[in-house]
Write a structure and sequence with these properties.
Number of domains: 1
Largest sheet: 8 strands, antiparallel, barrel
CATH superfamily: Hypothetical Protein Pfu-838710-001
Radius of gyration: 18 Å
Order of helices and strands: HEEHEEHEEEHEEEEHHH
Number of strands: 11
Distance between the termini: 9 Å
Structural class: alpha+beta
Shape: globular
Length: 266
């Protein structure tokens, strides 16, 4: 398996996009949005980017188009927030500290998925990533905007990756593509270099040129969140019944990628 070959091709395709800066994409923050996820095998991503570049700008930060993200997720000791996701509970939260490495910005972020399927993200700037427990500023913010008890939360998992952020040239839409996914806790570290997780972010679900590109490459909508995928990857004996369809798709994608890469570099 040669993921480095495909990663280099991805970097080459990224250089062909028209760039956009953080300041220029301020009007497309989409902090209240609808999300649609896809799983992409790394071997398909260069072709997908080639097809997408006429429709999208690519975020460039400090001369970098593939940007590193470091994220620490919080949950209770018994993973109560994860289990709400696993059973499909509406009006649920994700809580995290994030370091946007390329821009040297750190935020404490709270994502709320309401009963209409909308994702609402709120955040505050911080001086660093809070670990293992929330500092006073973040605790006060969490108490103000949610019904969660900050003292019950602790940092339980790192999710690190490289992100491409595409911005639609003609409508308020962003596409993030996360690759080199790495999950880590106190006892284990797992990296998935063979796949990327893409997420379309829109004010409301509607037509999108990237959906047509995905269809061209026979990709179907549906994936598990990086948070839930990471919990399942790192923690033993975790209930995952509602995610089995997505986990089977990931497993199939990993298997297909390994077969393609083995044949390509035999």
């Amino acid at each position: 398996m040669n993921t480095e070959f495909f990663f280099n091709r991805i970097k080459q395709e990224c250089e062909l996009f028209e760039p956009i800066t953080l300041a220029e994409m301020d009007g497309v923050k989409l902090m209240d949005r609808m999300d649609t996820k896809y799983i992409i095998p790394m071997n398909l991503l260069p072709s997908i980017l080639a097809d997408a570049k006429q429709y999208y700008y690519l975020l460039e930060t400090n001369n970098e188009r593939l940007c590193s993200y470091q994220t620490l997720y919080y949950d209770t000791e018994n993973l109560a927030l994860y289990h709400l996701h696993q059973v499909g509970k509406e009006n649920r939260y994700k809580v995290r500290s994030r370091n946007y490495v390329g821009s040297n910005l750190q935020f404490f972020e709270v994502k709320f998925k309401n009963n209409r399927g909308r994702t609402i993200k709120k955040r505050i700037k911080t001086d660093g990533i809070n670990e293992p427990h929330l500092e006073d500023k973040s605790s006060e913010f969490l108490s103000k905007i949610s019904n969660l008890e900050p003292d019950n939360l602790q940092g339980i998992m790192w999710v690190n990756y490289t992100r491409l952020t595409l911005v639609n040239k003609n409508s308020p839409e962003r596409l993030t593509i996360d690759l080199e996914l790495t999950f880590k806790n106190d006892t284990k570290e797992i990296k998935y270099a063979q796949i990327a997780i893409a997420e379309i972010k829109q004010e409301k679900i509607g037509a999108s040129p990237i959906v047509d590109v995905f269809k061209k490459h026979h990709l179907k909508e549906g994936s598990i969140s990086k948070y839930c995928f990471g919990i399942i990857s790192l923690f033993e004996g975790i209930k995952q019944n509602n995610f089995k369809k997505h986990l089977r798709r990931i497993s199939k994608t990993l298997h297909q990628y390994d077969s393609i890469a083995t044949n390509a570099f035999a």
